[in-house]
Amino acid sequence: MTEPTFQFTSDLWRYEGEAPWHFVTLPEDVADDLDELVGERPGFGSVPVEVTVGSSTWKTSVFPDAKTGSFVLPIKRAIREREGLDVDAPVVVHLRHDDERGRASDRGATSSN
User: Model-level pTM?
Assistant: First the structure.
């Protein structure tokens, strides 16, 4: 079954902790729809996804964010540089649940990002 693709725009932000990660936060409606689609999640609740921003497509995971009640999507430096993304600027994201990776993790297999 082909998973639905969610499209949204969200501002890029930088986490100011020891490791300076960059993220976009999923809008509440997208997070709710993704949560309903995936159902119960093992571990700490990450969801494997395939993401497209501009001409870049990659596999990663979104992570639950207790502060916002949504999910956050990490954006690696290579993607930010390739796509010319800046902090506080809007990012157009196409995201779909990576059901194949989700099923592999349910079976105890590992996958790499």
Answer: 0.84
